[in-house]
Amino acid sequence: MPRPLTRPIPDALTEPFWAAAREGRLLIQRNPVSGRAQWYPRVHCLDDWSVTPEWIEASGKATLYSFTVIPRSDIEELPAPYVLAIVELEEGAMMGATLTDVDPDQVQIGMALEVVFVPLDEEISIPRFRPAPG
Questions:
Q1: pLDDT mean for each 10 residues of the chain (134 residues)
Q2: How many domains would you assign to the chain?
Q3: Of 74, 67, 72, 40, nearest to 129 (Cα)?
Q4: Tell me, what CATH number does 57's domain have?
Q5: Are strands 61-70 and 112-119 parallel, antiparallel or unpaired?
Q6: How much is the pTM?
Q7: Which H or E element spans position 17?
């Protein structure tokens, strides 16, 4: 029997990300000193734990870094087969996401992707990636 996708629970750290996602914008964090981008949200910068990261709006453009095809699923929002991926954002951060609007047999490392947002409800929209046009 299919089950629903586990719903993320925003907290004080992640609320800026989820608020932007509701608006169709992708936020990531960046070290304001070094400029290094990072994902997922943290209270410190990965390259210098003494620096607090800032939120920036990402372009939404990415390159497929790695992936696996999930052949079975009992999650109603992720019918099988689906593609679970690691994407490298244009800003340099790596992000885990699922791919959409693509035949799993056509997925290739290095393909250009763009972010899209899939609403779960009025509060949460999930970023996914699809092949970029062209």
A1: 85 97 98 98 97 98 98 89 97 98 97 97 95 92
A2: 1
A3: 67
A4: 2.40.50.840
A5: antiparallel
A6: 0.93
A7: helix 15-22
